[in-house]
Amino acid sequence: MASPNLQITDIIFNDDNKEVIHNAAIASLDDASNSHATKAITGNTSLTSAETTGNFYIELTGTFGAFTLDMPDTNKRFMCIENNTTGICTLRNSASSGTITIAVDDLMLFFYDGTTILEITAMAVP
Questions:
Q1: pTM, whole model, 2 decimals?
Q2: CA torsion sign, 21 to 110 to 47 to 81?
Q3: Half-sphere exposure at residue 91, Cβ-oriented, CA atoms within 13 angstroms
Q4: What's the pLDDT at 12?
Q5: Alpha carbon separation from 40 to 9, 33, 86 (Å, rounded)
Q6: Residues 108-113: what's their mean pLDDT?
Q7: For residues 124 and 103, what is the distance between their CA atoms, to the nearest angstrom?
């Protein structure tokens, strides 16, 4: 089994390597809370479940016009995305019609529940 949102492996009673599983879980929580990833944009694309569970902050880069970025419909979490591209980003759930827009050079903090994307705050990147 794994945790429902971050897919962190559960420790079970008869595991021989409980400390290894525990340490991996702590590292996964640390990554999900603090890690930064960069994703090069060349057109409409999707974030993978691994990208969204393993990183809190994702910086989008590239020289492309307006594009759509799909979120996987499996994760529930707070995230931050920086649009460091040359085009407006439309962030959406791949399985529904809800969207938010992230302007060029903006940083967006949002909550995602697997279907709805709720903007918390947006600001220009300093």
A1: 0.80
A2: negative
A3: 29
A4: 81
A5: 29, 22, 12
A6: 92
A7: 9
**What are the tokens at 3?**
């945790």
In three-state form (DSSP H/G/I as H, E/B as E, the rest C), the secondary structure along 10-59 is: CCCCCCCCHHHHHHHHHHHHHHHHHCEEEEECCCCEECCHHHHHHCCEEE
Q: Do the beta carbons of residue 5 and residue 25 sit within 8 Å?
A: no
How many H helices and E strands in the chain?
2, 9
DSSP at 115: S
Nearest partner of 72 among 114, 44, 116, judged by Cα:
114
Encoded tokens for 58: 């994702």
State which amino acid sits at residue 85: T
User: What is the set of domains in the chain, with CATH numbers?
Assistant: 1-34 (no CATH), 36-124 (2.60.120)
Cα 80 from Cα 71, distance rounded (Å): 13
